[in-house]
Amino acid sequence: MKLLLRLFLIFSFQINAQQFLIKGKVIDKNDNHSISYTNIRVEGTHYGTSSTYEGLFQLRLEKGNYKLIVSNIGYISDTINVKLNSDEFLEIKLQPVPINLSEITVLPGENPALEIIKRVIEEKHKRNEKINTYIFSAYTKGLIKTVRDFSSTGTQVGITVGDSSSDSSKLKITGIIENESRGYFKKPNFYKDEIIARKQSANTPSTINIFTGGRLIQNFYTDDIRFFNRPLVSPIADNAIEYYDYLIEDTLAMDKQNVFKIKFEPLKKTNPGFVGTLYISDKTYNLIKLETGLNDPANPGRIFNKINIIQQFRIFDDIVMPIDYRLSLEGNLMGLYKFGFELNSIFFDYQINNNIDEDFFDRTVIKVKNDADKKDSTYWRNIQTIPNTEEEIAAYKRIDSLEAIEKTFWDNFSFLATAISVNKNFSVYGPLAIYSFNVVEGHTLNFGGNAIQLFDKRLNANLDLSYSFGDKKFKQSFSTNYFLGEYRTTNFSFSAYNKITDLFTESIHYNKLTSTLTSLFGKYDFRNYYYTKGFSFSLGGLVFPILNLGVGFFNRTDNSAINNTDFSFFNRKKAYSINQSIFETKINAITTSFQFDFRKFIEDGYFKRRIDDTNGFITFGGSAIFSNKKILKSNLDFEIYRANINGSFPIVASASSRFSIVVIKSSNAIPFQMLYALPGNIESGSQSFTFRTLRAGEIFGDNVLMLSLENNLNDELFRLLGLSFLIEKQMNLSLHFNAALIETSNKSKNILPLNILSKGICEFKKPFAEIGFGIGQQLFPFKVEFTWKLNYKGKNNFVVGINTPIL
Fold first, then answer.
1. Are 288 and 372 within one domain?
2. Looking at residue 83, which CATH number applies to its domain?
3. In terms of domains, do 92 and 147 share one?
4. 516 pLDDT above the threshold of 90
5. Where does the UniProt annotation place the signal sequence (predicted)?
């Protein structure tokens, strides 16, 4: 009997809590065309939604009687009575407001629009003073659009075979993400978003589905507006009147209230900003809707040919809050690759000025709930959503069908790939990685592969195998790491190797392909090599939100390598430089490390990921190596202590600066191959955070103090100087400065290779410094840099180099 009673109570609760779906479409009563972005709210609640571009909407409500208030600018608001005891479809017809509006109040002045905007800004401040906290719910949908379908491995699939009507240049939906989130705010600047549920098309990983209703989506009632990492002045920002030109274009009505329709654009055509329309309510001077886009100077590289933004606002508890956010953009990269993206988010169920404990706002600004990816179809049928269009439903089916097709190795094959995916977890070397060449190994064939995110995204592994025809050696290297903890913040790593490696590899910022090409075509190998074999393991992880600690051990035996080839396609009479010998030894050492990182996190459901703060950030870390003859049976006694400080800070507008400081202090004799070399460059090349006037491996030592400063000024200096030609061409300017003190202790000099001692050791016992600038165009991934030595002049007092990540 008790069991029956319990089952009855459970059944009764489910009946009472059952929700029904209200679907609907809002149309114009006169001509029956759909009305986009109409507000639908439930009277007496903070619950509601807004219609799509096609005028469609849906609401989930429990059984009962409701009044739906439907409103849009230019139409007479309507109240719809709904008796809900089953799913309903409503066709709501709104009557346009008659053209003969009542007289509106226009304040005196040369431009009445400016007076209105001043009042809007005043009301904005009053609004902000009223807000201490708020909580809201959000539903967000993102659409990725490309010409061709893509798979989860990144492979393009192509237009559907047999579809003769398909346009090969037409954008179509090729990826979909949806999520439900809850957002929190507390003065002065505490933010947090929790993703409660998320789903996406089969070709899109859940880890990128972190678009929420909070910090990643703009709110035009704040002054913190950024697009493409550039801060932009909001049209109702405190300094907006000095930045934008305003014009009253029309007067409309909403909810029996007059509405000003005001056009705006930057006063200076070269200033980056918004261009669009504001809808301001008369009497209250609230911003109730914004339709805008970006002008050319705010469009990076002008790759976007369409950028549309729509946001609406409504009063909750006498406070204006955003109720949606719509972003639509389309672009064409250099005329070669068309793409598009849409983001639609609706905000509802506001709770304003409720108590939120400050401890709730930890260092995580976006948190994906543990069960967010486990919500079933029943759950998704019962939450607030933006209705899926027929195109979106078809896209889900098409993408799922494409992902279900088993892909072969050759489906993913590309001659320009360094790695080829076998599936989402395994990849093997691609054509660009199979072959390499250097002066020691000669022609080398490389084989290997990677395994990533196995066992619930916890295990990664890498295997490298190679055979070189110059030194006739077979080499192997294996490494793996396993992540522990709920958010995989602890990492155990292990590696075993018998391989060739670069001398001062940390200081060479160029890839392996670059040195292969400079050798084959220029007979110039800027690297030196040595053989090493051994193993290492380490354990490290997050012990506090701002602190990582690590400990490890390595055993390695290092031996010198010699030139084994003189081959080159060109410059055959030219001789390669002799490969540098090293201090041959066996080293057993314990390693320790720490890092203080004050940046905040995104918890994407699997990992904690640090995010850079646009207001600047700083990290401080260090490491130590202890080699000991007696305890660890190493061939040498020495210690190496190292500290690193890295950070970024804004300068003005979109300009920012990054810096890096390295401090190294050593004791006893350090083997040559473990000395630190100032990061240098190759001829006609340069890389960020390197000394442009120094060559790779040219200056080294065991006691170091180094500063690197990289300033990305974008076009801000050109704007200050009024250089409109450079602004129009979207040219960017950067500045760089490097300085260093570096020397080698006498004990380390005693074990240096003889040829190094015979040439003389170059040290900077007084600060060495260089300074320069670079200029490039936003669209292209390279810039030309010019650098001068400030002292220690001799060779390379002035150098010109191409800085590009391609090298």
1. yes
2. 2.60.40.1120
3. no
4. yes
5. 1-17
